[in-house]
Amino acid sequence: MATAADVKLQAHAMIDRMAPKQVSAVVTLLEAMLDPVSRALANAPVEDSTASEEEALAAAASHEWLRDHDPISNREMLAEFGLNEEEFERMGQTPLSAER
Asked: What pLDDT, in 10s, does the model give residues 57-73?
Protein backbone atom coordinates (compact mmCIF):
# COMPACT_ATOMS: atom_id res chain seq x y z
CA MET A 1 0.00 0.00 0.00
CA ALA A 2 1.40 3.39 -0.99
CA THR A 3 2.10 5.94 1.70
CA ALA A 4 0.78 9.50 1.57
CA ALA A 5 4.30 10.65 0.69
CA ASP A 6 4.44 8.17 -2.22
CA VAL A 7 1.10 9.39 -3.54
CA LYS A 8 2.24 13.02 -3.34
CA LEU A 9 5.44 12.19 -5.22
CA GLN A 10 3.36 10.44 -7.88
CA ALA A 11 1.10 13.51 -8.17
CA HIS A 12 4.11 15.82 -8.54
CA ALA A 13 5.57 13.57 -11.24
CA MET A 14 2.29 13.59 -13.17
CA ILE A 15 1.97 17.37 -12.90
CA ASP A 16 5.52 17.74 -14.24
CA ARG A 17 4.44 15.85 -17.39
CA MET A 18 1.39 18.04 -18.06
CA ALA A 19 0.99 20.84 -20.54
CA PRO A 20 0.59 24.33 -19.00
CA LYS A 21 -3.17 24.42 -19.69
CA GLN A 22 -3.59 21.07 -17.98
CA VAL A 23 -1.65 22.28 -14.94
CA SER A 24 -3.89 25.33 -14.79
CA ALA A 25 -7.00 23.11 -14.88
CA VAL A 26 -5.61 20.91 -12.10
CA VAL A 27 -4.81 23.95 -9.95
CA THR A 28 -8.37 25.19 -10.41
CA LEU A 29 -9.69 21.76 -9.41
CA LEU A 30 -7.43 21.62 -6.35
CA GLU A 31 -8.49 25.09 -5.26
CA ALA A 32 -12.14 24.04 -5.49
CA MET A 33 -11.43 20.83 -3.55
CA LEU A 34 -9.63 22.72 -0.80
CA ASP A 35 -12.22 25.50 -0.54
CA PRO A 36 -14.57 24.63 2.36
CA VAL A 37 -17.58 26.25 0.69
CA SER A 38 -17.08 24.30 -2.54
CA ARG A 39 -16.64 21.10 -0.55
CA ALA A 40 -19.82 21.79 1.43
CA LEU A 41 -21.78 22.43 -1.78
CA ALA A 42 -20.42 19.26 -3.37
CA ASN A 43 -21.51 17.24 -0.33
CA ALA A 44 -24.91 18.92 0.07
CA PRO A 45 -27.98 16.73 -0.44
CA VAL A 46 -29.71 16.90 -3.78
CA GLU A 47 -32.76 19.13 -3.78
CA ASP A 48 -35.82 17.08 -4.56
CA SER A 49 -38.35 19.87 -5.10
CA THR A 50 -40.15 20.42 -8.37
CA ALA A 51 -38.93 23.03 -10.84
CA SER A 52 -40.24 26.56 -10.47
CA GLU A 53 -41.97 28.31 -13.35
CA GLU A 54 -38.76 30.28 -13.97
CA GLU A 55 -36.71 27.07 -14.10
CA ALA A 56 -39.21 25.44 -16.45
CA LEU A 57 -39.02 28.46 -18.77
CA ALA A 58 -35.21 28.34 -18.73
CA ALA A 59 -35.28 24.63 -19.61
CA ALA A 60 -37.73 25.32 -22.45
CA ALA A 61 -35.47 28.11 -23.73
CA SER A 62 -32.47 25.77 -23.75
CA HIS A 63 -34.45 23.17 -25.73
CA GLU A 64 -35.49 25.89 -28.17
CA TRP A 65 -31.82 26.97 -28.57
CA LEU A 66 -30.85 23.39 -29.40
CA ARG A 67 -33.32 23.34 -32.29
CA ASP A 68 -31.23 25.96 -34.12
CA HIS A 69 -27.73 25.19 -32.78
CA ASP A 70 -25.46 22.19 -32.50
CA PRO A 71 -24.92 21.02 -28.94
CA ILE A 72 -21.51 21.63 -27.40
CA SER A 73 -19.70 18.31 -27.14
CA ASN A 74 -18.06 16.98 -24.03
CA ARG A 75 -14.79 16.89 -26.01
CA GLU A 76 -15.04 20.66 -26.68
CA MET A 77 -15.77 21.41 -23.03
CA LEU A 78 -12.83 19.30 -21.83
CA ALA A 79 -10.53 21.02 -24.34
CA GLU A 80 -11.38 24.33 -22.67
CA PHE A 81 -9.68 22.91 -19.54
CA GLY A 82 -6.76 21.40 -21.45
CA LEU A 83 -8.07 17.86 -20.98
CA ASN A 84 -9.08 15.01 -23.25
CA GLU A 85 -11.70 12.32 -22.64
CA GLU A 86 -9.15 9.71 -21.48
CA GLU A 87 -7.69 12.11 -18.89
CA PHE A 88 -11.16 13.03 -17.67
CA GLU A 89 -12.11 9.36 -17.27
CA ARG A 90 -8.89 8.67 -15.39
CA MET A 91 -9.59 11.60 -13.05
CA GLY A 92 -13.02 10.17 -12.28
CA GLN A 93 -11.61 6.76 -11.42
CA THR A 94 -8.77 7.93 -9.20
CA PRO A 95 -9.80 7.70 -5.55
CA LEU A 96 -9.23 10.73 -3.37
CA SER A 97 -6.74 10.37 -0.57
CA ALA A 98 -8.09 10.28 2.98
CA GLU A 99 -5.53 12.97 3.84
CA ARG A 100 -6.40 16.34 2.34
From this structure: 999 999 999 999 999 89
The 3-class SS string of 13-44 reads HHHHCCCHHHHHHHHHHHHHHHCHHHHHHHHC
* 34 within some domain: yes
Domain assignment present for 11: no
Note whether 78 and 11 are within 8 A (CB): no
Distances (CA, A) of 42 to 2, 32, 35, 52: 27, 10, 11, 22
pTM over 0.90: no
CA angle 78, 81, 83 (to 5 degrees): 55
Question: Quick one: how many helices (H) and strands (E) in the chain?
Answer: 6, 0
Q: Is residue 49 part of a domain?
A: no
φ, ψ of residue 34 to 5 degrees: the values are -90, -15
